Amino acid sequence: MSNEDSRENKQIGIAMRFTSTLSNNRMLLSVIAILYLFPLITRAELSPERDLLNIITQIMIFGLLAMSFDLQLGRAGLLNFGHVALFGVGAYFISFTLNTTIFPELNVLPFPLTLIIAMLIGAFLGLIMGLTTSRMRGTAFAFIALAIAMFLYNFFAQNPSISGGETGLRVATPGIMTTAPFYLFFIIITFIILTAFFGMVINYVKKRTESIGPFYFIPVMIAFAGFLLFFGTNILGSVLVSAALVGMLVLHLMERSKSIRDPLQSEEGEQVLSSEVKPVDILGRYILPLGILTIIVVGFIIAFWNNIYGMVLVGIEDTDVFLLRIPVMYYLVLTCVVMSFIFIKRLIASPFGRMVTAVAQNQERAEALGYNSYHSKIVVVMISGAIAALAGGLYAPFIRTIDPTTALGVGVSIDAMLYTIIGGIATILGPLLGAGVVVYSELNLVDFMNSIGLPGDLWVVGLGIIYIIIVLYLPLGIVGSVGIKTRSIKERLLQVKIGSLEFGMKEMDYWVPVVIGTLVLLVLLLFFTINI
Amino acid sequence: MEKVINPIRDYLDENPRTRKILSIMSIVAVVVILVVVGIYSYSLKGFVDRTILSIVDGLALSMLLFLMVSGFFLIFGLCDVINFAHGAFFMLGGFMGFTIYLGTESFLLDLGIFGTNYFVLSIVSFIASAIGSMAVLAIVGGGIEFFTVRRLYGNAIAQILLTVGFMVIITKVAEIIWGSSVISYFITPFSQIGESGYFFISGVFNFGGILIFQIYRVFLIFLGLAIAAVMFVAFRKTRIGLQIQAGIEDSEMVEALGTDIKKLFTIVFMLGAGLAGLSGAVLVPWIGANTGHGLTYLIFAFVIVVVGGAHYGRFEGTFFGALIVGLAMKFCAYFAPALENIIVFIIMAIVLILKPGGLTGS
Known about the structure:
The complex is a heterodimer.
Chain A: H1 3-12, H2 14-24, H3 26-37, H4 49-75, H5 83-98, H6 111-131, H7 141-158, H8 160-163, E1 169-170, H9 180-207, H10 213-231, H11 235-268, H12 274-277, H13 282-317, H14 325-349, H15 351-361, H16 363-368, H17 373-399, E2 401-402, H18 404-408, H19 410-423, H20 429-451, H21 458-473, H22 477-494, E3 497-498, E4 501-502, H23 511-531
Antiparallel strand pairs in A: 1-2, 3-4
Helix pairs in contact in A: 3-9, 3-23, 4-14, 4-17, 4-19, 4-20, 5-6, 5-7, 5-17, 6-17, 9-11, 9-13, 10-11, 10-23, 11-13, 14-17, 15-17, 19-20, 19-22, 20-21, 20-22
Chain B: H1 7-14, H2 16-79, H3 86-111, H4 118-147, H5 156-178, H6 187-190, E1 204-206, E2 212-214, H7 215-237, H8 239-249, H9 251-256, H10 261-283, H11 293-308, H12 315-335, H13 343-354
Antiparallel strand pairs in B: 1-2
């Protein structure tokens, strides 16, 4: 960081720190922004996009469960087959608060509060599970936790009066989710995140002053303009985004000319204190970027105004409508997943996370260094339990009927394990990705197998074989195996040349393929969903 | 760490005799209270009848569990592999026994060697089903060890993940072939002899009242005892049995003394899976073959190994663990049906709190 930069830092302070945080997490921010943007395309009437939204919601719930599972397995080295118990208590607690017949006195609790209570209950059960880790070391933890889960399963299965028995317990939609303000709250969050994302893009435009810069941000903006053209309800939005693209090009040219002139300036007047003499570039620093940002956000609002307005109207007119539920559920789950993701990321990078990893790698050494391995394991299981209970609490209103097998059966633990192993153990993204791959193929392959005359369950056998191959030959899963190869790929990307143009892709450019890839993937999935 | 001052524990530590007397007295007191409560709720005759029934059923179940769990214990003790696929082996053993019994029966009927001597025919089919199921499962288990588990020795978590994968695959294949766990398969309705099928021990002992029990359960007790006795003798007297016993104590030393430990591991895996198959096959005439058994009996295996003492335990520990779990389950089935499926976990919790290493552990 140069001298000038640090002076700017002091001047702008918090805003600068905010922009640098955004610039450090470009890829994460892009994916989050696109995921938040996606449900805006749903209209107020029934449309096929809702199916895809539903599928993504399910993937995210199971991804959350797998993330919490991986927190134990990948980070603390605890293989917990009773993980489903943590999931199940959350699911059952939420369904008790939403079902009017079993515990009517719980119905008065507001839904967001019940989610927090469910997390506390999950953490408490995690504490009980964690206490057993001292009794039996290592792999035997799997027994105890499994026994706890089976105990809960048998208890609920034998008491149909509280568990709903074979037919399951009906879970009503939480009242708050059918109201318009709850939806608007998420829409506001969406636009805040979009603003942050495009602010990051403008910041990128100002920083990437090489001649290759436009080749990275032009496709992104064109992709967004096309997205608005296809899915927006008003063509003006797309036009405004295109106008913003022109503004970005102007900004790029201005910054470029400045950056070319800069070295000459410093050579000429070494004695002059440049900062006091140089006029502050108001146009390039404030007016143009903020103007572009405003145009883009207004463009997005105009493009999706009809959809948002229609949804809000439905919410105000008829509070019990089913249609509103899907985007709102999606937003709720997405927000929880994003928060958990960032929390887990920070947790692993924290001193506590390092300590947990140290204990998992060599318990004796960590204890000799003075760490309390027992406490760290208990805390990890508790945090993981809270997240798993959150996943359960989101699952109950999503699936709308729960029974002991789907909420407390050991199969759920095994599923979470499959997602984690296939996606990549000890990676945060891996479990989410594994859940995505497995759940999406589960939903589509069963029908496909049935249609070609094979039993639908056969795909599970195939999945098991793939899983065994991954355990034997790719112990790090998809994400982990890709992560090993990243370094050589990065070096190769840095040296790409087409003709005389150097397409050297730096670390700061990786968000571009991520944005375009995510958009293309979502649109492709959308077309598959509509056609099937 | 600070030491908590506990005068009662200190006193008991100093006087082990008092401790022993106290623990025996407390057990006796609990038993007496349970007996009194039982007599009070069911009257004397009802209590005695139920007790006899529970003991017969519980012993039969214990023998069966012992056969299955000894396979699990062998694999765990020697190879240090927690075999999550063991329940699936057991379930597959049940279906193998079922299929082989019916196949042998129809084959023998076509052949006509035994004519109308259905009793001998049934016994021959039963023995064939037990041995055949054992052989099939031994091949399956040995194959799994030879091709996959062998690569992962020393990596405990990866082994568990691997065996869970096999559990999923075996269970799913069984569900595709035989349907979900709603249906249990019994021999008699599928048997081709007579109108409603024939099995060589299908009668009951009827002593009036509720005191009726199938002869097969009594037979099962003796069968289990016989196989257990054969196993005990084999492990004490044969060369390979002694090698396995020594390997459980210290596998590195056994390897250093010139035993091919890899071959031994494969043999133990085959033996363990074969025992699961055998116990699955003899379960069929009583409880039936069901695709849901895999997970249920896997949990029982865990509980028994934990109760009996996993790490330093011997076969005796497994035997007593199986006895405790089987008897407790059946006593609960007759006296407090709500507790039947939960009692095993309660027992495990009590044992873990009082003796973390299991009954025979240190």
